[in-house]
Amino acid sequence: MSARRGLWQLAQRAFASHAGRPGEAVPAISNAHRLAPGSSVIQVPQRLLMGPGPANADPRILAAQSLPLLGHMHPPFLKIMDEISEGLRYTLQTDSKYTLMVSGTGHAGMEAAIANLLEPGEKIIGIWGTRVADLAARYGGDVIELKADAGRSFSLEELTTALETHKPALLFLCQGESSTGVHQSLAGLGDVCKRTGTLLLVDTVCSLGGVPFFFDKWGVDCMYSGSQKCLSAPPGGAPFALSERALEKLKGRKTKPATFNLDMNLIGDYWGWFNSRSYHHTGMVSMCYALREALSIVQEEGLDNMWSRHLEMHEMLWHGLKKLGLEPFVERDADRQDPTPARTPLTRAGAGVTFCSRAPGAGVDWAAVVKNAMDKYYLEIAGGLGPTAGKVWRIGLMGYNARPQNVELVIDAFRDGLQKQGKL
Ligand SMILES: *Cc1c(COP(=O)(O)O)cnc(C)c1O
């Protein structure tokens, strides 16, 4: 066969594969939605993310995420999954066997908690916004909402009364409320929940790693979190944990959880909770590398150091903002991170990781301050959300970002933004 004839045959084969199967007519390819020449490489500007999340990821975590892929059932990958479960035990301060990373953001953790721990018709007392109430109703829960004024947390007495009155299957609390900056204290609740036959479910999406949290000592039964706030990883993985009591509830269900994707019987089995490993879905390999690295950074720094660093940055921020005439949205010390120096970070009554600030006086254009921060400083701060829309700015001091130079920049951006409006 001549070389020319060989090439002709190759071309014919290539054409044949484009033309599809014999007898299958293939139309011409349209380029209407094809990348324009010159724009095929992704462009990402540098931003400092000091809003309620995501926060900037630690470069070491981003590097971990770019390591080669492994198969989701390969032994070296299973070892990384085990390291995540163990790293979570330290981070959550628990000996529970039942820790893992849910494939998805904080909301997936929220849905996993509700879908697995609540059976249709059971009561849930929920507090954080309307999301959980909506989710619980979708799974057939009987939702009892406790309402407080925005900017206030619930006292142990108020929660005890609600628990004793309703004896719900589940109590949902959010430790750090990112729409208002409220910190919900958890100490003492576990005992009351045990008395009323209630499982205690806690959202720590924006607080885990930033403020004290003790899964076992505080009697928490289920906790979910997020990777992109104080843990400094990209969004996409939700730390998740169940207590022995919560696992019994799951095992004793009369009905299967209505979700296959978030059925913790199946996902727990993939993560080795029941001493075997079976495939449920392809684990988020790169996201697991990221969380594995994020948790080892937490362990290297130590929880006590991490908590005091967040507290220090919080105090530094408030010191600077007060000089500009700004006030915290959350009025009572007990409802937010408490700067009282007499208390150690471990015993302070209130803490929060996302802080909100009231605008000084009337007539301040909050959106112009946000825009100026972005345009001039490449800095993200956020406006309010839900009950705080139009009333506050939200500033996050989370994880890798909770460092003095960033706090200084936030204060500078506020000073500049307010000066431009003649408010200083
Ligand atoms: C950010 C946040 C969430 C939502 O998490 P996603 O990762 O966006 O799904 C839930 N709860 C709190 C308290 C948060 O701050």
Helix and strand element order: HEHHEHEHEHEHEEEHHHHEEHEEEH
The radius of gyration is: 25 Å
Structural class: alpha/beta
Please state the average pLDDT score. 89
How widely separated are the two ends?
Answer: 86 Å
What small molecules accompany the polymer chains?
pyridoxal-5'-phosphate
Uncertain regions spanning at least 5 consecutive residues: 338-353
In the sheet with the most strands, the strands line up as 2-8-7-6-5-3-4
CATH arch. level architecture of the largest domain:
3-Layer(aba) Sandwich
CATH class of the largest domain: Alpha Beta
- Kindly give the count of domains: 2
> Beta-strand percentage?
5-15%
Topology, number of strands = 13
Count of DSSP helices? 13
CATH topology value of the largest domain? Aspartate Aminotransferase, domain 2
CATH superfamily of the largest domain: Type I PLP-dependent aspartate aminotransferase-like (Major domain)
From the spread of the alpha carbons, the general shape counts as globular
Q: Main sheet? A: 7 strands, mixed
How much helix is in the residues? Answer: 25-40%
EC number: 2.6.1.44
Protein name: alanine--glyoxylate transaminase
Cofactor: pyridoxal 5'-phosphate
Family: Belongs to the class-V pyridoxal-phosphate-dependent aminotransferase family.
In short:
Keywords: Aminotransferase, Pyridoxal phosphate, Pyruvate, Transferase. This protein is an alpha/beta fold.
Overview of this structure, please?
The protein has 424 residues and is an alpha/beta fold. The protein has two domains: 59-301, Aspartate Aminotransferase, domain 2 (3-Layer(aba) Sandwich), CATH 3.40.640.10; 303-420, Aspartate Aminotransferase, domain 1, CATH 3.90.1150.10. 38% of the residues lie in helices and 12% in strands. The chain contains 13 helices and 13 strands. It has helices at residues 3-19, 59-65, 75-92, 106-117, 131-138, 156-166, 189-195, 244-251, 264-270, 285-301, 303-323, 366-377, 404-420; strands spanning 48-49, 99-103, 123-126, 142-145, 170-174, 199-203, 222-224, 237-242, 327-328, 354-358, 379-380, 382-383, 392-396. Strands 2-8-7-6-5-3-4 form a seven-stranded mixed β-sheet, sandwiched between helices. The chain has a four-stranded antiparallel β-sheet with strand order 9-10-13-12, covered by helices on one side. It is globular, with a radius of gyration of 25 Å. The termini are far apart. Residues 338-353 have low confidence and may be disordered. Bound molecules: pyridoxal-5'-phosphate (PLP). InterPro entries: Aminotrans_V_dom (IPR000192), Aminotrans_V_PyrdxlP_BS (IPR020578), PyrdxlP-dep_Trfase (IPR015424), PyrdxlP-dep_Trfase_major (IPR015421), PyrdxlP-dep_Trfase_small (IPR015422), SP_NH2Trfase/AEP_transaminase (IPR024169). Belongs to the class-V pyridoxal-phosphate-dependent aminotransferase family. The modification N6-(pyridoxal phosphate)lysine is found at residue 229.
